[in-house]
Amino acid sequence: MSGTRRTNETEPTSGALEGRAIERRDRDAQGRARNARPRDGLGRPLPYGADGVERQPEGVVRDPEDTVAEAQALLDAGKPFHAHEVFEDAWKSRPDDEQGLWRGLAQLAVGLTHAARGNVTGGARLLRRGAGAVEEWAAVAGEPRPYGIDVSELGAWARELAGLVERDGAVVDAGASAPRLRGGRAA
Predict the structure, then answer these.
(1) pLDDT digit string, tens, across residues 137-150
(2) Is the pLDDT of residue 187 over 60?
(3) Cα(75)–Cα(79) distance, rounded to whole angstroms?
(4) Does 82 have pLDDT greater than 90?
(5) What is the pTM (predicted TM-score) of this model?
(6) Torsion angle, CA of 9/10/11/14, rounded to 10 degrees?
Protein backbone atom coordinates (compact mmCIF):
# COMPACT_ATOMS: atom_id res chain seq x y z
CA MET A 1 0.00 0.00 0.00
CA SER A 2 2.84 2.38 -0.81
CA GLY A 3 1.96 6.00 -1.34
CA THR A 4 -1.01 6.03 1.01
CA ARG A 5 -1.42 6.35 4.68
CA ARG A 6 -4.03 4.38 6.57
CA THR A 7 -6.83 6.23 8.36
CA ASN A 8 -10.59 6.00 8.62
CA GLU A 9 -11.92 8.66 6.25
CA THR A 10 -11.08 8.96 2.59
CA GLU A 11 -10.38 12.16 0.72
CA PRO A 12 -8.78 13.04 -2.58
CA THR A 13 -5.13 13.98 -2.52
CA SER A 14 -2.89 15.95 -4.83
CA GLY A 15 0.52 15.52 -6.35
CA ALA A 16 1.89 12.01 -6.70
CA LEU A 17 -1.25 10.56 -5.15
CA GLU A 18 -3.67 12.31 -7.52
CA GLY A 19 -6.75 10.22 -8.04
CA ARG A 20 -6.06 7.94 -5.08
CA ALA A 21 -7.78 8.09 -1.73
CA ILE A 22 -6.11 8.47 1.63
CA GLU A 23 -7.73 7.93 4.96
CA ARG A 24 -7.46 10.06 8.09
CA ARG A 25 -6.58 8.45 11.40
CA ASP A 26 -9.01 8.65 14.28
CA ARG A 27 -7.78 11.34 16.69
CA ASP A 28 -8.98 12.61 20.04
CA ALA A 29 -9.26 16.32 20.96
CA GLN A 30 -5.56 16.41 21.86
CA GLY A 31 -4.54 14.91 18.51
CA ARG A 32 -3.61 11.47 19.91
CA ALA A 33 -4.41 8.50 17.72
CA ARG A 34 -7.58 6.66 18.77
CA ASN A 35 -9.21 3.77 16.98
CA ALA A 36 -12.91 4.50 16.76
CA ARG A 37 -13.76 1.20 15.08
CA PRO A 38 -16.35 -0.84 16.95
CA ARG A 39 -15.04 -3.89 18.81
CA ASP A 40 -16.43 -7.28 19.73
CA GLY A 41 -16.65 -8.61 23.29
CA LEU A 42 -13.01 -9.72 23.19
CA GLY A 43 -11.79 -6.33 21.96
CA ARG A 44 -11.22 -7.35 18.34
CA PRO A 45 -11.84 -4.51 15.86
CA LEU A 46 -14.93 -4.85 13.69
CA PRO A 47 -15.59 -3.04 10.41
CA TYR A 48 -16.72 0.58 10.69
CA GLY A 49 -20.49 0.71 10.98
CA ALA A 50 -20.80 -2.76 12.54
CA ASP A 51 -22.59 -3.22 15.84
CA GLY A 52 -19.99 -3.69 18.52
CA VAL A 53 -19.79 -3.92 22.26
CA GLU A 54 -19.75 -0.64 24.12
CA ARG A 55 -16.18 0.25 25.00
CA GLN A 56 -14.94 1.03 28.47
CA PRO A 57 -14.29 4.72 28.94
CA GLU A 58 -10.58 5.44 29.26
CA GLY A 59 -8.91 7.38 32.03
CA VAL A 60 -11.53 6.78 34.70
CA VAL A 61 -10.16 7.09 38.21
CA ARG A 62 -11.84 4.57 40.50
CA ASP A 63 -11.04 3.59 44.03
CA PRO A 64 -9.49 0.11 44.32
CA GLU A 65 -12.70 -1.50 45.57
CA ASP A 66 -14.66 -0.16 42.58
CA THR A 67 -11.86 -1.21 40.22
CA VAL A 68 -11.94 -4.80 41.46
CA ALA A 69 -15.75 -4.95 41.44
CA GLU A 70 -16.07 -3.50 37.92
CA ALA A 71 -13.30 -5.70 36.54
CA GLN A 72 -14.90 -8.79 38.11
CA ALA A 73 -18.28 -7.97 36.54
CA LEU A 74 -16.60 -7.62 33.13
CA LEU A 75 -14.66 -10.86 33.57
CA ASP A 76 -17.85 -12.68 34.57
CA ALA A 77 -19.56 -11.27 31.45
CA GLY A 78 -16.83 -12.73 29.23
CA LYS A 79 -15.20 -9.35 28.54
CA PRO A 80 -11.62 -9.69 29.76
CA PHE A 81 -10.39 -7.09 27.24
CA HIS A 82 -12.67 -4.55 28.89
CA ALA A 83 -11.55 -5.67 32.36
CA HIS A 84 -7.96 -5.07 31.24
CA GLU A 85 -8.90 -1.46 30.43
CA VAL A 86 -10.29 -1.00 33.95
CA PHE A 87 -7.07 -2.41 35.44
CA GLU A 88 -5.03 -0.22 33.11
CA ASP A 89 -6.82 2.88 34.42
CA ALA A 90 -5.86 1.81 37.96
CA TRP A 91 -2.29 1.14 36.86
CA LYS A 92 -2.05 4.69 35.51
CA SER A 93 -3.85 6.44 38.37
CA ARG A 94 -2.81 4.61 41.55
CA PRO A 95 0.34 5.43 43.52
CA ASP A 96 3.67 4.23 42.13
CA ASP A 97 4.01 1.56 44.81
CA GLU A 98 0.79 -0.12 43.57
CA GLN A 99 1.43 0.00 39.83
CA GLY A 100 2.98 -3.48 39.73
CA LEU A 101 -0.23 -4.96 41.15
CA TRP A 102 -2.53 -3.29 38.63
CA ARG A 103 -0.17 -3.92 35.70
CA GLY A 104 -0.07 -7.62 36.62
CA LEU A 105 -3.87 -7.76 36.85
CA ALA A 106 -4.12 -6.09 33.43
CA GLN A 107 -1.71 -8.71 32.03
CA LEU A 108 -3.88 -11.50 33.45
CA ALA A 109 -6.96 -10.03 31.77
CA VAL A 110 -5.10 -9.68 28.46
CA GLY A 111 -3.84 -13.26 28.82
CA LEU A 112 -7.43 -14.46 29.21
CA THR A 113 -8.39 -12.30 26.21
CA HIS A 114 -5.74 -13.95 24.03
CA ALA A 115 -6.64 -17.43 25.26
CA ALA A 116 -10.29 -16.74 24.35
CA ARG A 117 -9.21 -15.48 20.92
CA GLY A 118 -7.27 -18.69 20.28
CA ASN A 119 -3.78 -17.21 20.66
CA VAL A 120 -2.26 -20.13 22.57
CA THR A 121 1.29 -18.80 22.89
CA GLY A 122 0.39 -15.21 23.74
CA GLY A 123 -2.40 -16.21 26.10
CA ALA A 124 -0.27 -18.64 28.09
CA ARG A 125 2.69 -16.26 28.20
CA LEU A 126 0.61 -13.31 29.46
CA LEU A 127 -1.22 -15.43 32.01
CA ARG A 128 2.09 -16.56 33.49
CA ARG A 129 3.65 -13.09 33.28
CA GLY A 130 0.64 -11.52 35.00
CA ALA A 131 0.62 -14.18 37.72
CA GLY A 132 4.33 -13.61 38.36
CA ALA A 133 3.90 -9.83 38.47
CA VAL A 134 0.99 -9.94 40.92
CA GLU A 135 2.72 -12.51 43.14
CA GLU A 136 5.98 -10.54 43.10
CA TRP A 137 4.16 -7.34 44.00
CA ALA A 138 2.32 -9.07 46.85
CA ALA A 139 5.55 -10.58 48.23
CA VAL A 140 7.45 -7.27 48.14
CA ALA A 141 4.51 -5.29 49.54
CA GLY A 142 3.75 -7.94 52.17
CA GLU A 143 0.13 -7.95 51.02
CA PRO A 144 -1.15 -11.45 50.19
CA ARG A 145 -4.75 -10.17 49.80
CA PRO A 146 -4.61 -6.59 48.48
CA TYR A 147 -8.13 -5.16 48.28
CA GLY A 148 -9.44 -8.65 49.01
CA ILE A 149 -7.75 -10.14 45.92
CA ASP A 150 -6.57 -13.67 46.70
CA VAL A 151 -3.16 -13.45 45.02
CA SER A 152 -2.14 -17.08 45.53
CA GLU A 153 -5.46 -18.38 44.19
CA LEU A 154 -5.25 -15.99 41.25
CA GLY A 155 -1.72 -17.16 40.41
CA ALA A 156 -2.81 -20.79 40.58
CA TRP A 157 -5.78 -20.03 38.29
CA ALA A 158 -3.53 -18.32 35.74
CA ARG A 159 -0.96 -21.10 35.62
CA GLU A 160 -3.63 -23.79 35.42
CA LEU A 161 -5.38 -22.00 32.54
CA ALA A 162 -2.04 -21.40 30.75
CA GLY A 163 -1.26 -25.12 30.98
CA LEU A 164 -4.73 -26.07 29.73
CA VAL A 165 -4.49 -23.70 26.78
CA GLU A 166 -1.05 -25.02 25.82
CA ARG A 167 -1.99 -28.67 26.30
CA ASP A 168 -5.32 -28.57 24.46
CA GLY A 169 -4.67 -25.70 22.07
CA ALA A 170 -8.35 -24.91 22.42
CA VAL A 171 -10.10 -21.56 22.53
CA VAL A 172 -11.45 -20.97 26.03
CA ASP A 173 -14.78 -19.43 26.94
CA ALA A 174 -13.75 -16.14 28.58
CA GLY A 175 -16.75 -15.95 30.92
CA ALA A 176 -16.64 -19.59 31.98
CA SER A 177 -12.86 -19.40 32.50
CA ALA A 178 -12.86 -16.08 34.37
CA PRO A 179 -11.14 -16.00 37.75
CA ARG A 180 -12.74 -14.97 41.02
CA LEU A 181 -10.50 -12.09 42.02
CA ARG A 182 -11.47 -12.36 45.66
CA GLY A 183 -11.15 -16.12 45.86
CA GLY A 184 -12.82 -19.25 44.60
CA ARG A 185 -12.63 -20.71 41.13
CA ALA A 186 -14.06 -19.52 37.85
CA ALA A 187 -17.48 -17.97 37.89
Answers:
(1) 999 999 999 999 99
(2) no
(3) 5
(4) yes
(5) 0.78
(6) 120
